[in-house]
Structure formats: C-alpha cells, structure tokens
Amino acid sequence: MAEQSKVTFIITRQDGPDAAPYEETFEIPYRQNMNVISALMEIRKNPVNSKGEQTTPVMWDMNCLEEVCGACSMVINGTARQSCAALVDQLEQPIRLEPMSTFPIVRDLIVDRERMFDALKQVKAWIPIDGTYDLGPGPRMPENKRQWAYELSKCMTCGVCLEACPNVNDSSNFIGPAAISQARLFNAHPTGEMNASERLNGLMEAGGIDGCGNSQNCVQVCPKGIPLTTSIAAMNRATNIQAFKNFFGSDTAL
Amino acid sequence: MAEQREFFFRRLHSLLGVVPIGIFLVQHLFINHLAVYGEEAFNAAAGIMHQLPFVLVLETLVIYLPILFHAILGVYIVFTSRYSTRRYGFFRNWMFALQRFTGIVLVIFIAWHVFETRVQVGLGNVDVNYSLMEGILSSTPMFWFYVVGVLSAVFHFANGLWSFLVTWGITQTPKSQRISTYVCLIVFLAVGYLGIRSLLAFAYGI
C-alpha cells in the first residue's frame, strides 16, 4: 500500500524506575514486513519524535528475535505479546506500545521479570542431579509422555500470563501461572518425580497456587499455547493430596 | 505448616462456600418455595426449622461462622485483585469479576437480611412466618433488593461450584471444565427459579 508510507507509534516511556511515565509519538518510514522491533530499531537510528524534537532512543529488551526467549514482551495495542512476532502489517494504527505494568519498570519498555525467576526457585523448578559421584542413568521416559511434556517445556518465562492475570499485582504475592505449570513439568519427569513433594510444598507456600482465582486469562494469552489452566487444576489436585499426606501422615508424604 | 497457612485458609474458604454454605442456601430456597403452596405450608416448614434441637448451635456452626469466615477472607480477595475485563473480555474473566462483585453485594444483602429477620426474631420483635416476609416484600424497593440479593447468592453459589471443582482438582481438562460450566448454569437456573418464585409468592401471593 503506497499511502502507508509512514507508521505511527505511540509509546509509553519512563526515564527510570521511579520516574513518571509519559507518552511520546513517533512516525517512521514504512518498510515491507516490518515488525515492532525493526520499527524500534528505526527509532533508535533517528530518535526524533513526531513533533520533530530530538529525543532519547526508546529502550527495549530483546534477544532471540524468533519468539522463544521471552525477553521482548510488551503490551502492543492493549495485548501483552512478543514484539519480535508482532508484524506491523497486522496491527491497527497508531500502534501503541506500553511496558508490562505488572512488573517493575526499568526504563521505557524494559521490565524486571525477576519475580518470575524467584517463583521458579520457590517451586524448585529444576531436577537436582548434581552430586559428588556419578549417579548413573535415570529412569526412561515414555515417548508419548515426552511429547506431552515438551508442550509444557515451551514456557519461556515471557511474563505475558502474569500480565494478563488479575491476581498478579502489587497487593498480592501470587507467583503466577508460569511457575505452577513448570512444577507440573518437572514433577512429570521420571527423575524430577523423585522430588515431587518438595515442589508441591513450594506451591503451597505463601503466594503459591492458592492465589489462582480461575479467571483463565493466562491460557488465552499464552503465546506458546501452554495448557496453563489444566496445569493449575492438576497441581490443585496434587497439592491437596500432598496437604492431606502432610497433615494426617503417610509413608509417602516425602 | 506455618508458611502454608494461606493455602489452608484458601482451601477452607473454597470448601465452606459449598459445604455447608451452598447446601444451606439450596435448602433455604427449597423451604422458601413452599410459600408457593400457601401460607400454612410455609409456616409449618419454617416452624420445624425453628424448633430443631440445638438450633442456635446448629446455626452458629453451619451458618454464622462459615459465612463470616467466607465473607471476611472473600472481601480481602476482592480487594487484592485487579479487574481487567475491558482489556481481556473472555467469558471466564467476566465470571471472575462477577463472582467478586456479587460477593460484595452479598455481604451487604446478607447483613441486612439477617438483621431484618433472624436478629429481629431473636430479639422477640417478630415471629418467623409467612406474614413477616409478606410485610417486608410488599414494599417494591425491598422486593427488588431481594431479587438482586437472591440472584447474586445463586450466581455466586453456581459459579463458585464451578471453581470449587477446579480448586479441588476434580475438573482438570478444558472439556470437563466446559461441561461443568453448563452443569453450573443449570444449577443457577434451577435454584434461581426457586428463589424468585418464592419471592413472587411472598410479595404478590401468586
């Protein structure tokens, strides 16, 4: 389309973690197959806003540029998603970019997703195999189960589910859907299963799985199509059983 | 255990919403529905409920304490959520918001309803019978207040039943959760019918 020679961006900016946010409009020349990141690169090349004033380049986070690292998530036209996979041709103009407000803002569109990594620590979302001697090979995993687990392993800690979740906010300590699904992933692994109760107990700690209010926004917005609400319901069942074992006592409580 | 207190309280909150509060709500509306068959039928049933042995202990353990706990923790839950139906207009997100909205309506409605009926009966000012409700509901604003209150209660119960099934890990797959949505809709319509039908009987004698 010849008349679409310019693309307009309205970007919510913030100079630092404690600075007040403000909006700035940019008009950049249209190129074919542009995505939001290439547009931001265009602004960086020539940081002049639509009023013709020289300004600072807009800061954003990015890494893989193929929607697998999760670093470049931002709110684009009201929807949290990866900016690398957001094609300008498919977006309504003017394109509005905002940082994901659930997270502390570092600068402009860069947010600090540390709470997600703290959540993974809370639920011990890893498989402990390090030791002082060779532990030998672990048990085998059935192929159909491996294929199923692969879907859960696609989580890239991008933060979109936390941004959409009504229960992840300043007044709640809820860890969010991503870590709950990761606990399920590692509990399904034949070696990870050996520490299943540790992850379930992590899910029962403050800010854990009980913070879910079943709004089910997470599963709707997940860019990887991870069945987050199924994971939450499955972990609900598992934590309930673990809680009964913990309280009433059982040989298999550990 | 201490660091898992929040988990325990939220699970207790979910359980109490259905057992006993949900069961009590359904029983309450079943008895109210007897008003449709006439004043004597309702008075007889209400009289039996009122003359149950240990009635005050039963009421305290089955009704007052569970509702009080559910309400206090519920209000906390309502004010620690961020509502986003404008940005994320999904069906479940609307249900999430409505569940919390009706919860607040119910705190007000139940407080008023208990004061106007049970507290007044306890103080000996009125007797629990058909004419008490007839008197309250003959005023049009009160009738509509009760319609809103009863529908909020039934919605909160039916939708709460859906999330109870998820919270206790009974419905996990999207398919089972979809079917339980329809089942809970039927519960809402059936119990809601009982409630509204008895309000009409009290207010207009039809």
TrEMBL record, chain A:
GO terms for biological process: respiratory electron transport chain; tricarboxylic acid cycle. GO terms for molecular function: 2 iron, 2 sulfur cluster binding; 3 iron, 4 sulfur cluster binding; 4 iron, 4 sulfur cluster binding; electron transfer activity; metal ion binding; succinate dehydrogenase (quinone) activity. Its EC number is 1.3.5.1. Its cofactor is [3Fe-4S] cluster; [4Fe-4S] cluster; [2Fe-2S] cluster. Residues 146-177 form the 4Fe-4S ferredoxin-type domain. InterPro entries: 2Fe-2S_ferredoxin-like_sf, 4Fe4S_Fe-S-bd, 4Fe4S_Fe_S_CS, Beta-grasp_dom_sf, Helical_ferredxn, SDH/FRD_Iron-Sulfur, Succ_DH/fum_Rdtase_Fe-S, Succ_DH/fum_Rdtase_N. Keywords: 2Fe-2S, 3Fe-4S, 4Fe-4S, Iron, Iron-sulfur, Metal-binding, Oxidoreductase, Tricarboxylic acid cycle. The keyword Iron applies. It is an enzyme of class 1 (oxidoreductase). Belongs to the succinate dehydrogenase/fumarate reductase iron-sulfur protein family. This is succinate dehydrogenase. The gene is sdhB.
UniProtKB/TrEMBL annotation, chain B:
The lineage of its organism: Bacteria, Bacillati, Bacillota, Bacilli, Bacillales. It comes from Oceanobacillus sojae. SUPFAM superfamilies: Fumarate reductase respiratory complex transmembrane subunits. One of its GO terms (cellular component) is membrane. InterPro entries: Cytochrome_b-558 (IPR011138), SQR/QFR_C/D (IPR034804), Succ_DH_cyt_b558_Firmicute (IPR016002), SuccDH_FuR_B_TM-su (IPR000701). Heme binds at H28, H70, H113, H156. It comes from the Bacteria. This is Succinate dehydrogenase cytochrome b558 subunit. The chain crosses the membrane at residues 12-31, 51-79, 91-115, 143-170, 182-204. It is found in: Membrane. The keyword Isomerase does not apply. The keyword Membrane applies. One of its GO terms (molecular function) is metal ion binding. Pfam families: Sdh_cyt. Its main location: membrane. Keywords: Heme, Iron, Membrane, Metal-binding, Transmembrane, Transmembrane helix.
